[in-house]
Amino acid sequence: MSTYIVIQSHHSNYPHPITFQKGEGLLVGERYDGPEDWSDWYFCTNQSGVRGWVPAQVFVRNEWQPEQGIAIEDYTAYELNAMTGEIVTALRQRNGWIWCVQQTDQAEGWLPLDHLQLVENSES
């Protein structure tokens, strides 16, 4: 596992993030096209109508209807609110974002990689 320090505060713009279970159908929308290096994120809608950004690795598209997808793993777009100086442990990385655990309260969620600096890497 890798340990990071937050070098730029992050506050989520999505208080009600998209969440879904493996096997759930998705409506696949636009691909993210911003200045950040966040490739392969798609704006999807789950079966409950909740919309949010989803990494391409967690769904497959329908071959005949590419706007339709099926989740191949459980997923939540929950983002952590983190202040500069906080320490987090990375559990997995996806397309410029890291799923982290905060040391202070053990809360889990996504943080942008460019807001973090590697402190320790014990994956070697």
Put simply, the count of helices is 0
Distance between the termini: 9 Å
Dominant shape:
elongated
Determine the structural class based on helices, strands and strand pairing. mainly beta
In this structure, how is the largest beta sheet organized? 5 strands, antiparallel
- Percent helix: under 10%
- Which stretches of 5+ consecutive residues score pLDDT under 50? none
Describe the structure.
The chain has a 5-stranded antiparallel beta sheet with strand order 11-10-9-1-12, with no helix packed on it. It has no helices and 12 strands. A hairpin with a 6-residue loop joins strand 6 (59-61) and strand 7. By secondary structure, it is mostly beta strands. It has strands at 2-6, 19-20, 25-31, 41-45, 51-55, 59-61, 68-71, 75-76, 87-94, 97-102, 108-112, 116-121.
List its salient traits.
5-stranded antiparallel sheet; mainly beta; single chain; 124 residues
Topology:
Elements lengths: L1 E5 L12 E2 L4 E7 L9 E5 L5 E5 L3 E3 L6 E4 L3 E2 L10 E8 L2 E6 L5 E5 L3 E6 L3
Antiparallel strand pairs: 1-9, 1-12, 2-8, 3-4, 3-7, 4-5, 6-7, 9-10, 10-11
Could you give a quick summary of the protein structure above?
This protein has 124 residues and is mainly β. It has strands at residues 2-6, 19-20, 25-31, 41-45, 51-55, 59-61, 68-71, 75-76, 87-94, 97-102, 108-112, 116-121.
